[in-house]
Amino acid sequence: MLFAALALGLVLAAGAQAAEVSKSLSPAKFSRAPDLSVRDSKGEVRRLDAYRGQAVVLNFWATWCEPCLAEMPSLEDLERRLSGKPFKVLAVNFAESEERVKAFLENYGIKLEVLYDKDMGAARRWSARILPASFVIDPQGRVRYSVLGEADWTAPGIVTAIEKLLP
Predict the structure, then answer these.
(1) Which neighbouring-strand residues pair with 114?
(2) Residue 92 parent element (H or E)
């Protein structure tokens, strides 16, 4: 009896974990995008308004965050899938050194555009208290969806929702 209860618990936990990863987009809690002013690897300041006319997935992440690492390949796949369309993934690193991030990107072969939130100001403005935290912004600059925690960015429902935002 105890074994059956433990087995059921493991099955339920595995199901909950699978459901967590295949999370869908939630309506965003704010419509107007908070300020995003962070530096890229060349030291240039990047602002969200520079991406007007494109749908953007803004993803806050860190190299020490296992769910962040797990979802990175699907973010890259999404960007490849929407290549040639007005779409961009911006991976905003959460307060780590550029050296550490560059080494991580090289080690895992990740090619996403990475921005650096060294003082965590952008994460605070975006209420990114859990990593990964992602926000889908439409071409007009409105935050349409958010995802807290790991997501499969190639899931049909997510891809379709983002494609509907594209002009």
Answers:
(1) 91
(2) strand 87-94
Spell out the residues 6+ positions from residue 166 whose beta carbon is closer than 8 angstroms to its own: 55, 82, 85, 86, 87, 139
Q: Which domains does the chain have, with CATH numbers?
A: 24-165 (3.40.30.10)
Structural tokens at position 6: 């433990």
Decide if 108 contacts 67 (C-beta within 8 A). no
CA distance 39 to 41: 7
pLDDT at position 16, please? 39
Q: 68 CB contacts (<8 Å, ≥6 apart)?
A: 61, 62, 131, 132, 150
Query: CA-based diameter of the chain, in Å?
Result: 62
Half-sphere exposure of 141 (CA within 13 A, CB side): 11
User: Which tops the pLDDT comparison, 100 or 29?
Assistant: 100
pLDDT band at 60 (very low <50, low <70, confident <90, very high): very high
55-61 and 133-137 as β-strands: parallel, antiparallel, unpaired? Answer: antiparallel
Find the DSSP H helices in the chain. Answer: 2-21, 66-81, 98-108, 121-125, 156-165
